[in-house]
Amino acid sequence: MSATTAPRVDTSAGSPRPPGPRPRRRRRLGTVGHRVLVALLLVYLLAPFVWMLVYSLYPSSALQQARPDLDPSLLTGASYARLLSDTSFLVPMANSAVVGISTTIICMVLGSACAYAFARYRFRGRSTLLLGMLTVQAIPVIVLAVPLFILLRAFGLYDRLPGLIVTYTAFILPLVVWMLVGFFDEIPPSLERAARIDGCNRLQIMVKIAFPLAAPGLAATAILAFITSWSDFFLAKVLTSTSASTLPVKTAAFQGLFAMDYTSAATAGVITAVPVLVLALVAQKWIIRGLVEGAVKG
Amino acid sequence: MSTVSRADLRRRRDLRFGVGLSLPAVAVVVLLLGYPMGYALYMSGFSWNDKLGSYHPFVGLGNYRDLLVDPAVHRALGRTLYFSVFTVLGGVALAVLIAVLLNVEFRGRTLVRVLLLVPWAVPPVVNGIMWKLIFDGSSGIMNTILLGTGLVDERVQWLADPGLTMNVLVFAELWKLLPFLCLLMLAGLQGIPTNIYKAARIDGANGWQRFRRITLPNLRGPIMFALIVQSMWSLKVFDTIYVLTGGSGGPAEGTTTINFLAYLTTFSNLDRGYGASLAVAAMVLIVLVTLMWVLLLGRRREDREEAR
Fold first, then answer.
1. I need a surface site. Which of A24, A137, B104, B307 has the fewest CB within 10 A?
2. CB-based contacts of B143: which residues, under 8 Å, 6+ apart?
3. Assigned CATH for B44-307
């Protein structure tokens, strides 16, 4: 009982506040102002997406009036039903899923080994390579688009899923390595030393000790790799035409230069965004950590 | 003696293991990005337009000489600069302010932070569609709101005027990139011990002084990282322009940045040689800007580390 009352004695001892109601009122006013700002921020963050969602669920005639009619009785899933039964939409969707999953698996296998080596073993050229991985971010994809197009055509991989998977792997792998090095760096080496004394070899230490400890980081990185692959538009546009086309390319096609099928575009937009949104929100804690790691490391 | 050699042996095995693990990934990246990069440089040395047939003479640095005096390139550079100044400097400044706003203890703070990931995760193509639904001249909700509240008398043609379209583009990109920058700044803010603020308050420092003398210096690392990374992204923006302008970089080339000009030159004019030189120029620009940030801000960081 006394323990709970003890801290009530002025905690800010040494900072005598001027008496009177002013500071408190100012603080309350500050809190209200703060809440308003946060609320505005939330509206800003969510409104554009919510509006697209609304667009996908109402007939466009109801929305394109001086006063948009949001009567719930007008709600319709017709646009979703139409797109999700249309093979010219389903094929790109499946392509995106196949390419995304394959790219993620390849990137994680190659990238986790590479990142582990970078994090644990010091060898010459290591920091140069690590920096090089970040430098890839500086390359505009447009530089490589035509050469990649020529290269894939020469190997018979143009407009085919393997061509896209190989290309994405090259672009996403550096990102994966960069992010994973951060996660492996956090594992204390003492555990691995203990395992070595117990007779584990280097490979066993990596697979049985380091990987399980870095599991959340590995999962977040895999999700980031998938999101990056799933969201790409430019490479898919240049390196495919019909049979290997992906969801973003199909979605972008709903809006032409002069005319736009608004409802379909909105619906396709929601369908394209929802999988990555769900993944990002599910793994949010680890994704945020992985994203800011590099900056905090400086 | 024997322990030294055993340690030596182990180090050599460590090395072999480490190199073996990293080799496949490094090889994939170097081969798959290095070869196309070399090929792009090679193409940029030719006068190579597929519209003009298959004859393409070697012109050395001729394409680069041309682009230095090409008015279309100058205009594109100006637009790139405009777009980048607002998205990079504006983005980082806004991110710092929003991060300060969210670093205060309040109910639902975690939720707000999680929701920051929504714009971050939305694919760029979808981002373009979203803003098109909002800013479309004839049916966009922005005009509906502005007309309804009487702020304007007639519809604003957001996406038919070159200057306005560029501003819509900046606005749309800011929405997508702010959350990541905010998360960076929030992480930085969390590293600042709260007693520094308490001590400063006791010493009579007002809000602005605390922000200026404590918050900003402590955010130098994240701010520098944000400036570099966001510069890279802003200078190579593509998807949003494509979707917002129907692949035209218009209206009246109003959103044709240097990167988009390289795309149009290569894929609409089929001028491979010149397009490749433009793309390489865009890359050189990105590297130069990155170096600029490192030189501008990096030295101070060294000073700080020496002081530590």
1. B307
2. B136, B137, B152, B155, B156, B158
3. 1.10.3720.10
Q: What are the residue boundaries of the structural domains of chain B, listed by start?
A: 1-31, 44-307
Query: Which residue of A12, A17, A45, A141 to mutate against B (max B Cβ within 10 Å)?
Result: A45
Nearest CA distance, B281 vs chain A (angstrom): 9
Note whether A97 contacts B: Cβ–Cβ < 8 A. Answer: no
Contact at CB, B246 and A279, closer than 8 angstroms: no
Q: Comparing A213-217, B103-107, B186-190, B229-233, which segment has the lowest mean pLDDT?
A: B103-107
Q: Is B59 on the interface with A (CB under 8 A)?
A: no
Encode pLDDT of B176-189 as tens digits.
999 999 999 998 89
Which structure tokens are listed for B207?
């809000």
Q: CB atoms < 10 A from the CB of B141, how many?
A: 20
Which ranges of chain A would DSSP assign to H, the alpha helix? 2-5, 22-57, 60-63, 78-83, 87-120, 126-135, 141-154, 161-185, 189-197, 202-204, 211-213, 215-231, 234-239, 247-252, 262-282, 284-297
- The reply to whether B246 touches chain A by the CB within 8 Å rule is yes
What domain range includes position A229?
Answer: 80-297
Return per-residue pLDDT of chain A as tens, 298 residues: 333 333 333 334 444 444 444 555 666 667 888 889 999 999 999 999 999 999 999 888 888 777 888 888 888 888 899 999 999 999 999 999 999 999 999 999 999 999 999 888 877 777 788 778 777 878 888 889 889 998 999 999 999 999 999 999 999 999 899 889 888 888 888 888 888 888 888 888 888 888 998 888 899 899 999 999 999 999 999 999 888 999 999 999 887 655 678 889 999 999 999 999 999 988 888 888 877 765 555 4
* A133 and chain B in contact, CB less than 8 A: yes
Residue A214 domain flag:
yes
**Separation in Å, CA of B3 to nearest CA in chain A:** 16
Q: Which pTM was predicted? A: 0.88
Residue A97, domain member (yes or no)? yes
Question: Which sign does the torsion angle of CA B211, B216, B217, B218 carry?
Answer: positive
Nearest by CB to residue A48, choosing from B32, B112, B130, is: B130
Both structure tokens of A24: 């408190």
Amino acid at B26: V
Min Cα distance A110 → chain B (Å) is 5
- Asked whether residue A272 is domain-assigned, the answer is yes
